[in-house]
Amino acid sequence: MARPNCSLEALLSSDGPVYQGAGCPRAAVLCGMNVSWVLADATAQDLQELCLSEEAYLARHLGPPRSPAFLPVCAAYLAIFAVGVLGNSLTCVVILRYRVMQTATNYYLLSLAASDLLVLLVGMPLELYEMWRNYPFPLGAGGCRFRTFLFEAVCFASVLNVTALSAERYAAVVHPLRVRRVATRAHARRVVAALWAASMLCAVPNASLHGVALLPPKFGRRFPRSAICHLVGPAWIYSVIILASTLVFFLLPMLIMSVLYLLIGLQLRRDRALAVLDRGGASGSGGLSQSNTHRLTKRNVQVTKMLCVLVAVFGLCWAPFHADRLMWSYMDAASEQHLRAFERVHVVSGVCFYLSSTINPILYNVMSTRFREMFCRVTCYSNGWPKAASVQMTQRSNLTPSPLNGKVLSPRIRRPAAT
């Protein structure tokens, strides 16, 4: 590309009010500038930047167009994408296809799998594109707000679903008779719909603060290729929203779930002690009843263990996400040291964020007998599933009272959000 003459002599001898030279407009920042404004108001730094190409000028003010971490992050994201889409799709299929899997508990898991699929299928490609080409943002202000809204809504929905599932598990284990009337599939569907509506409503404030930002014009020259999806509203409002969402949608749910599982653990310990005391005197039909009770207690323990693991994974995967948001809200953007630290935290939080959308189906397969059998039926034995396994599953479901049918499975966990 031809290089224009950017010297002061060339500016003084310019024929028109707007500079036009060889290779313009991308060859030099000077192209398209008002010459008289440059001569009257340019600082020493402005004069140094006049001959920079547009690419070099944008890189100086916005950073490199492609993230230095693009290749390793892309490889990690693609592996997460493949496993996550397959696992969450299987989760949705087995719950929707088999009536035995359509329990109150599993409706929460279906909602979580749907939110994970949204993140993986919509959010991850957008983030990879932005890492590959940081600017210009191709979707405009509406696309920027939709992207922010999507991340916020699915993050909040995931947190609320996990919390609701923990509350359902607490009621099923600690108050099984009281929950009999409400732990139904219809009730679970209504709760899930309400949680999604609340999540979308709470996602609006942050989404409304975002839009497309451009570098300011320089002596009449505009830079449309500098468009990025960025905060355009007041920074203090954004900081308040991020702090509130961290408290309401991470710390408070984690505290609630920790207390609920502590109470569940104490109840299961009491049940186990009573079962040991009563086991010796059973005979005849009473023995069968006690055997069934023992199986139910065992399943409660299995489900509760899986839920505890899921909540722990939830906390581990989402803590970097919220740390990333808080750091961006309160750090000094002019500090090079802060920016370097934020880049590292941002990469780690992104991997953890998407990993949380992938790990849940793996935990279902490892820790839930029923999900493992159903996954095998869909993937391996769809035409000839052994009858014994089918009978075994039917017996297990008959052992569980209808309002507690969700005991076989548990939640999954994940993360608001960028949950």
UniProtKB/TrEMBL annotation:
<feature type="transmembrane region" description="Helical">
    <location>
        <begin position="191"/>
        <end position="215"/>
    </location>
</feature>
<feature type="transmembrane region" description="Helical">
    <location>
        <begin position="345"/>
        <end position="367"/>
    </location>
</feature>
<comment type="similarity">
    <text>Belongs to the G-protein coupled receptor 1 family.</text>
</comment>
<keyword id="KW-1015">Disulfide bond</keyword>
<feature type="transmembrane region" description="Helical">
    <location>
        <begin position="149"/>
        <end position="170"/>
    </location>
</feature>
<keyword id="KW-1133">Transmembrane helix</keyword>
<keyword id="KW-0297">G-protein coupled receptor</keyword>
<keyword id="KW-0472">Membrane</keyword>
<keyword id="KW-0675">Receptor</keyword>
<protein>
    <submittedName>
        <fullName>Neuromedin-U receptor 1-like</fullName>
    </submittedName>
</protein>
<feature type="transmembrane region" description="Helical">
    <location>
        <begin position="69"/>
        <end position="96"/>
    </location>
</feature>
<feature type="transmembrane region" description="Helical">
    <location>
        <begin position="303"/>
        <end position="321"/>
    </location>
</feature>
<dbReference type="InterPro" id="IPR000276">
    <property type="entry name" value="GPCR_Rhodpsn"/>
</dbReference>
<feature type="domain" description="G-protein coupled receptors family 1 profile">
    <location>
        <begin position="87"/>
        <end position="364"/>
    </location>
</feature>
<dbReference type="GO" id="GO:0005886">
    <property type="term" value="C:plasma membrane"/>
</dbReference>
<feature type="region of interest" description="Disordered">
    <location>
        <begin position="397"/>
        <end position="419"/>
    </location>
</feature>
<comment type="function">
    <text>Receptor for the neuromedin-U and neuromedin-S neuropeptides.</text>
</comment>
<keyword id="KW-1003">Cell membrane</keyword>
<feature type="transmembrane region" description="Helical">
    <location>
        <begin position="235"/>
        <end position="264"/>
    </location>
</feature>
<feature type="transmembrane region" description="Helical">
    <location>
        <begin position="108"/>
        <end position="129"/>
    </location>
</feature>
<keyword id="KW-0807">Transducer</keyword>
<keyword id="KW-0325">Glycoprotein</keyword>
<dbReference type="GO" id="GO:0001607">
    <property type="term" value="F:neuromedin U receptor activity"/>
</dbReference>
<dbReference type="Pfam" id="PF00001">
    <property type="entry name" value="7tm_1"/>
</dbReference>
<dbReference type="InterPro" id="IPR005390">
    <property type="entry name" value="NeuromedU_rcpt"/>
</dbReference>
<keyword id="KW-0812">Transmembrane</keyword>
<dbReference type="InterPro" id="IPR017452">
    <property type="entry name" value="GPCR_Rhodpsn_7TM"/>
</dbReference>
